[in-house]
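Prompt: May I have another protein with tokenized structure?
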Amino acid sequence: MIVFSNQRLGPAAEVLVSSDVAAAMLRSTAEAARPLAEGRWEYECVLWLEDRSRRVGAEGEAGLDVGEIAWTPDHFERQKSFVTAAIQRAALGSEHARALSLWARQVGAHPRESVVVGRRWRWAVEASSI
């Protein structure tokens, strides 16, 4: 099982899904985000979501926390809107719409003061050349 979480919101906001559902959620969000991407951060976000979709459920990958996204303080609200819009777009017609909607709420509720300055995307070893 995979946990989508937002540590700032606590365990009550967690979304628990199977590895297959988590992979599908991440993959569909990446697909929905791709046509919306305009800047470097947004394209990197798409690649990161695709990377996470491939390794979800792998050894040591028990979940995804909203804080793992490489938010930047100066563009946080725009970035949060981009990710939330992509998740909501992915939910349209998806068999995982409820889980995607709950995940979108986690992202939307993420507070700006939780942004870690200098956070970088964490890639799988094979994706480190991206």
Q: What stands out?
A: Residues 2-127 form one domain. The chain is about 45% helix and 10% strand.
